[in-house]
Amino acid sequence: MRRIAWLAALLLAGISYLALAPEAALRAAPPQPARSLSHAHNAFGFKMLKLLEQSEGKKNVFISPSSIALALSMVYNGARGPTQAAMQKTLDLDGMDLAQVNQQSLDLINLLKNPDPKVQLAVADSVWARKGVSFRPDFLKTVLDFYQAQATTLDFRTPGAAATINAWVNEKTRGKIPTIVEPPIPPDMVMYLINAVYFKGSWTTAFDKNLTEQRTFTPASGAAEKRPLMKQHGWLPYLETDDFQSVSLPYGSNRRLAMYVFLPKKDLKSFLAKLDDGAWDSWMQRYSNTEGTILLPRFKMEYEKELRGTLTQLGMGEAFQDGADLSGIGPGLAISEVKHKTYVDVNEEGTEAAAVTSVGVHATAVRVEPPTFYMEVNRPFLFAIRDNQTGEVLFLGVVQNP
Hints:
The protein is an alpha+beta fold. Helix content is 32%, strand content 32%. The strands form three sheets. Strands 2-1-3-11-10-9 form a six-stranded mixed beta sheet, sandwiched between helices. Strands 4, 5, 6, 7 and 8 form a five-stranded antiparallel beta sheet that branches. A two-stranded antiparallel sheet has the order 12-13. The N and C termini lie far apart (107 Å).
């Protein structure tokens, strides 16, 4: 009887927990294979966000850790030696072998498809290879199999090459990020590896537009200004600590995806200093449904950043040097640029966001472009038929007048 009572108590506690914290229950739902990689992506994203916030000063910062990490993970497949070790450390992939990274990337991409009837979420990868340059076929097969990448050979010398790549970016972000590659493409650029993420979700409970009003908002500059703040009252997953208040605003009918808003009680910099994957995981387990009111600014922003400097600070500088080892892609290659662009629009109905990461790979040694020529055989000529394996000239002739 004592054992039965103990089990009943546990069952009731579980029911109570699920009733109070549906978000936590949903967070536990995804299959285990995607979790390790998600933790790595999160840890990487937190570190990058803090560095960008320091460098941008009082400007807005908006990144997609998933987009950046997945784009770099494709390149990671071609890294060897110290370059591979540097990328592994930067991307927080310690303890995971390459096969695990690839399989969990595929699992993650598939898990993110069609998450909710009221949420659009799409992750797309592509590889654009310079025509006339040879790359390792096993590398291209890996990014095709595990990252579902669209692989295209393109003549980078043509005026429309950049436009072709940008058209793909524009399509995958539903027009929110129309370009990522600037023409003309540099002559030493041999490959672009691009990831695009698009999200559009309706709030589970929309904000009433009639409740939105102009209220005082104090930006980082310190000068108070009037901004439109949306208002909602109800039961929401909520967490408060000595450092912050936080609310979770779910999307869609199944509440699988949500926006987490953190309001530091002191200053943002102090809060960010404590932000890492360990703290994040702890916080995510502590939300409980609480009745209250949330006032949230309505905002729209775009962000763009070249990430070589930030990635170098995170320990990946080896990959940008002429001595980088990307021999798994091809000989004499290094990363020349990592461009990241984002877009977000938060309003009473929901949120629309998009991100693109482009990793440009260039030749570290000067590559001679395939020669172009014009040959008009309009006078006497010599011809030969040769066995190339043995070098034997089988036929040889001169044509004076065909």
